[in-house]
Amino acid sequence: MRLLKHIFSVLSWIVFAVIIAYVLIAAPMVAGYKPVVVLSGSMEPAYHVGSVIYYKSTPFEQIQVGDAITFKAGEDALVTHRVTTKNEISRTFVTKGDANPSEDANPVDAANVIGRASELSIPFAGYFISYGKQLPVIIAMAAIIIISIILDSLYPKKKRETERAEQENEEKQ
């Protein structure tokens, strides 16, 4: 029982560390930055595949040529590319991925821009987030914490210390 308790204690500390990592990744949201996972290499080397980058809602007037912007492309896809041309009249941007040989085919309407990307990126954190969002992983982490709590309540530390002292007394006799 002690070994099982110890195993779940270690596992629960790992789960708590994972939760703290998620909170740290989400922390910039307090300042208005939203995280997004980089899924392609179109912005290499600025943003690596699997990184988490942050964007913040920015008015059209404040976005300049050379800024990386995150915009809607289709129904649910988000793309982060660099502005190569800004058209004040049509309120559109021509964009290009840093690693792409040519500009994107369609200009981006200002209404589809959801923000300007920051320079901050957290390498590999996107894999961590993508893995952690899976239902089996969430269920496993919750189960580890619940089992650890149950084991703590069934086998509290004081009870273990008392049993250990009794066991040592028996061994001495």
TrEMBL record:
Superkingdom of the organism of origin: Bacteria
Cellular localization per UniProt: Membrane
A GO molecular-function annotation: signal peptidase activity
Major localization listed first in the record, in broad terms: membrane
InterPro entries: LexA/Signal_pep-like_sf (IPR036286), Peptidase_S26 (IPR019533), Peptidase_S26B (IPR001733)
Residues that span the membrane, as ranges: 7-31, 135-155
Peptidase S26 domain residues: 13-75
Keyword Zinc annotated: no
Signal peptide span: none
Group of enzyme by EC: hydrolase
Keywords recorded for this protein, A-Z: Hydrolase, Membrane, Transmembrane, Transmembrane helix
EC assignment: 3.4.21.89
Full protein name: Signal peptidase I
